[in-house]
Structure formats: C-alpha cells, structure tokens
Amino acid sequence: MKTSSLVSTAAVVGVSALLLAGCATGDGGGGENTGDATASRACVILPDAASSPRWENNDRPYLQEGLEAAGFETDIQNAQGDVNKYATIADQQLSQGCGVMLLVDYNGAGAAVAEKAKAEGIPVIAYDRPIAGADYYVSFDNAEVGRLEGQSILDGLAAAGKDPATAIVVYMGGDPADGNAKMFHDGAVEVMEAAGIKPAAEPPGVWDGEKTATNFEQALTGLGGKVDAVWVANDTNAAGVITILDKNGLVVPVSGQDASIAGLQNVLLGKQTATVYKPIKLEADAAVELAIALLGGETPTADQELEDGTPYVAVTPQLVGPEEVVDVVDAGDADPAELCQGEVQAKCAEFGIE
Length: 354
Fold this sequence. Notes:
single chain; Rossmann fold
C-alpha cells in the first residue's frame, strides 16, 4: 500500500494546517482497493436540502468537480431528510460498487451504512458530521465554530452595554442527533459561561427554522417577553428566532453559522450579530484530497482526532460581521445579486458589496 503526505495549501484563507502523513502498513479500517473499476468510484450521500442550502448549492458541485477532475467517477445522491431513503441509496451504491464512501450523516443513518461499507472493505469518510465507525472525519473545527458564536454574543452584549452575568440569554441549539451540535454547543458554552452567562432558557435543539421559531416564542413567553441575547446554532434557526424578535419589536444579539444568504442579509440589517463563515470549498477540497488518497490505495492519517480516536481533518472557520460580508461575496460563496435585494441594497452599498 502506498503512503500519502498531503498538506493543505489553503491556509491563507482560513484552513488550519493539515498534515496527512501515510504509514507503510495497515488499511485504515477500510481495506485495500482491489484495482477493479469500482475502486475508482466515489459514492457520496448528502443529508437533505432543508436544514441548509449548502448541501446542493455548494458541497455537491465542489465534491463532484474535485473528484472528477482527478479522474474518478462519482455517484452523489441526497437522502432528502429521510433515513429510509438514506439506507436505500447506500444499498444501491454498494451494489454497484464503491472505492470510497463519503457520507454526511442524517439522524444516525450513516452508522449502519459505514458498517456495511467497512464489511466490504470500503473506507468511509464522515463528511461535516461525525459518524460512529467511520475511518476518517473531515469537517470544520466545530468547537471553534461554537466559540466564535459565543464570542459574537459577548460582543453584542458589550455593544448594548449589557453585563453578561446578569443578561437574559436563551440557548437555541441544533439537533442532538447530529454529533456536531454538541460541539457547537460546548464551544459556545465555554466562551459564554466563562464570561458569567447562565442560560435563562434552553428549549430542545432542532435543525428546523420553523420549529425553532415556535420553541423560541414559547421560551420568550415564559420569560415575560424579556431577552437580552439568543445564542443560535445556525443561520436557518436564527432566521426563525428573528421572526419572533421582529414580531415583538425586539433587536438583540443573535448568533449563527453557515454564511447563508438569509444569514448574511440579517447580519447586514443588524438583526443578527454575526455568522460563522465556513468556506465550504476548503472543506470539500480537504475531503477530495483524502478520498483521492484512499482511492489510490494510500493510508493517510490526520493531525487531530475525535474522542473515539477517529482521525479528524479540521478546517478553520471565520467570524463574519457586517464588514466581513464582502469577503464571503468575493470568495464566490454569496451571489451579490441574490444578497442585495430590497432593504438590503442600501446596506450592500454601505459596506462596499457590488
């Protein structure tokens, strides 16, 4: 088996230094490629299109372009938020043969697929969300995402002249079935509670803007309509929270992540303090590098690992406030024509977005 040494060249735009150094023995838990046609085939399962627009708009084309540019066949499908469809897609892909599987987990469905793939000697990359039994994990530094979100809440409270130790802060997390949700939460808590924040309310976490809006409205009612800040795990959920704040005539610090169009618009309008920008191409490129090495029969290792020992390739996120939105546009991850609509037009002009 060949060895692999991959060093990311994207550090200048926020990727943490990645060192993938191969070893001469072992199979990384995934077995060695057989050299037949299926060994050059990359099978990818995306989770849905509802929790974030990124999966179809960004991840799919970046992964497909990277793998195909390297000469590999790709089979990329979306489970559309259905665990049964996720399993069916996996069975179809495995029956046709895969040299590597790159899976974004959905409600734990990835674990059973990883087990099946590994039983057939196929290495598994958990992409963006951890999966029990995967050989590798490629994602952003999720604890750092949470820390940046927590810092944005502290920055917003400071700008409003509020003492964190006495502030009324509501926590609106993501779905606990997603392993990343805990990392986002724990990173945010590390920063916020070190500054004296104690959650005034913490409804059950979900990845659903409408359900988040309902949960937040109930929490706000329970607090007598008073809130000083809302830690929210992503932009889609933040948009739900903001609809309730708007309804009640409130403007308070709100966090988020993904640098979605809606999130960036809310940041420009001052309704969301900041969003954590995760340059998706950098994550996809790291996954493509790893997949190519595995398809080539190499056994890479990463410079970080999860608590269960899974090698972890971590990409560095960035905090984006109003002044940094232009950076997302310049990177090609937000279309200014789509972003700068309606009342946002004036803000785009103010912050130099064309």
